[in-house]
Amino acid sequence: MATKHEQILQHIDRLPIGSKISVRQIAKDLDVSEGTAYRAIKEAETQGYVSTIERVGTVRIEKKQKENIERLTFAEVVNIVDGHVQAGREGLHKTLNKFVIGAMQLEAMMRYIDAGSLLIVGNRYQAHKIALQQGAAVLITGGFDTSEEIKQLADRLALPIISSSYDSFTVASMINRAIYDRLIKKEIVMVEDILKPLAETPVLLTSDSVAKWHQYTELYQDTRFPVVDEQMRLIGIVTSKDIIGHEETAIIDKVMTKNPITTSPRVSVASSAHTMVWEGIELLPVVDNHRKLVGVLSRNDVLKALQFTAKQPQMSETFPNLIMSHFREERQADEMVYLGDVSPQMTNHLGTIASGIMTTVMVEAACNLLRHHRRGDMVPENITVYFLKPVQMESHIEVKPRLLDISRRFGKVEVSVFHGDQLVGQAMITAQIIER
Predict the structure, then answer these.
(1) For the residues of 161-228, what is the DSSP string, one character each?
(2) How much is the pTM?
(3) pLDDT per residue over 333-377, tens digit each?
(4) Fold entry, domain 4-60
């Protein structure tokens, strides 16, 4: 039987898109406490089919598919730009396809606007009206308002009119940054993207016998199975090692490994791979916040995912990528050297390279060196910085990683940083190697 928490989530999932959701109303309709209703609504928001907007409330929105992760709903835009919804609240769940900055003549502007667009513009009432008539939402910058006639039109068409105190350039930058952040997330493969779902996962109950494990091994050609209770909560895991020496009449509950290591759907595959290699496990159960089994992750699944991501074009603008874009790789004799200048963005308030930036450069140089020797992903395990010296802005530095030791699973690198002939930084980095 579903718990009250699950019943609330199911109730919210059945609500029509665009419905307003109230803690008090949910508590009243389902006869639960307001605390229980609040926690369930927050989980629904985490799962992506509810959005809470200041001065509007909580709204049921359409859950975006993974392939559309880079698209934003108008409800999310309100939160990104610290906006205020003036009209058209019924359309906050809709997804914007593109945004257009209205910094041109009206006739030229309208050529770029179509249904699903977001027009970013100041207090140009005629532009507001025509955009709505063409199926686009409106974001008014500079804290300006619009006319009552246009607000009524927005309500009729269920297209939001949002007001923000920021200027058009700032608003466009904020939305663009949010979309780009989603692209980075899209590039990172998550456990939920590759796991074997519960519907395809054979499970054993705690009350089953060892004989059933033997039946499963023949049927599924596997020896590792998660063990659950009647509510599908994960209780343990059973492998051939657990079964050895036990009669077929023995109960699984008595032979299984209890409280196994687990992961959650929203953890990256790289992190889960690190766990599996470090702990030496072949099957990783995936559970939700209530420890209910969602599916399983095998080592083969992880290896295939890492091989796939290795072939994808890198398009993320993460901080390590931005930092290392200032350096070029060169071969000097038998050594690999990274040459670059200290840009203003790398410095602290004193105008010298920030310690975090210097550490990142040394770690990236070490991992790159290890990749030349071992194909795979490098996960830093230990970073020991011996010393750092101040390096002024626009100084030229050389980063020299030196391989000390490497095995199938680990690598150790010493990294030295020079400014001219002077040693300005040195560190020892140990990294775990996850082979693809």
Answers:
(1) EEE-SS-HHHHHHHHHHHHHHHHHHHHS-BHHHH-EEGGG---EETT-BHHHHHHHHHHHS-S-EEEE
(2) 0.45
(3) 778 899 999 988 888 888 899 999 999 999 999 999 998 888 777
(4) Arc Repressor Mutant, subunit A (1.10.10)
